[in-house]
């Protein structure tokens, strides 16, 4: 039997992110992108101490944080883009993982970024 080269954690995360952008991050779709069977991917992730659902949750959370801070995309649109059933499902999950509501996270991060930008040496040279 020919040995299969298993993808890195980074490659799995990238494949999940690509799947989310194209309609949903199913295990089968991600495995196909990576050129391995779904079962092999599950086994490999288990050996790495994680699971497919945990990886999807990490990628979704990273993408949500980025979209909340770096864009003006509405929370309902972020929820749909990341594959949540709706904004309330997204908000509950975000709140459970981050211990803060998405709208408050967005406000705090933007305020902190604005303060940082104003105090940076580059900002004073503008």
Q: What report would you give on this structure?
A:
The protein is mainly α. The protein has a single domain (9-124), classed as Homeodomain-like (Arc Repressor Mutant, subunit A, Orthogonal Bundle), CATH 1.10.10. Helix content is 72%, strand content 0%. The protein is built from eight helices and no strands. Helix 1 crosses helix 4, helix 4 crosses helix 7 and helix 5 (75-81) packs across helix 6 (87-98). The longest helix has 19 residues, at 52-70. Mean pLDDT is 87; it is low at 122-126.
- Indicate the CATH topology: Arc Repressor Mutant, subunit A
- The class by helix and strand makeup works out as mainly alpha
Total domain count = 1
Distance between the termini: 63 Å
Tally the helices. Answer: 8
Poorly predicted spans: 122-126
Compile the SSE list and pairings:
Elements (H helix, E strand, L loop, with lengths): L8 H13 L5 H8 L3 H10 L4 H19 L4 H7 L5 H12 L3 H18 L1 H4 L2
Helix pairs in contact: 1-2, 1-4, 2-3, 4-7, 5-6
């Amino acid at each position: 039997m020919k040995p299969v080269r298993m993808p890195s954690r980074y490659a799995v995360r990238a494949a999940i992110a690509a799947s989310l952008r194209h309609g949903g991050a199913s295990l089968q779709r991600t495995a196909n992108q990576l050129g391995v069977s779904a079962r092999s991917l599950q086994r490999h992730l288990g050996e790495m101490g994680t699971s497919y659902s945990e990886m999807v949750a990490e990628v979704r959370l990273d993408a949500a944080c980025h979209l909340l801070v770096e864009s003006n995309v509405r929370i309902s649109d972020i929820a749909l883009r990341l594959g949540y059933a709706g904004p309330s499902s997204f908000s509950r999950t975000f709140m459970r993982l981050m211990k803060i509501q998405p709208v408050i996270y967005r406000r705090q991060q933007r305020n902190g970024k604005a303060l940082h930008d104003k105090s940076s040496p580059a900002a004073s040279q503008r």
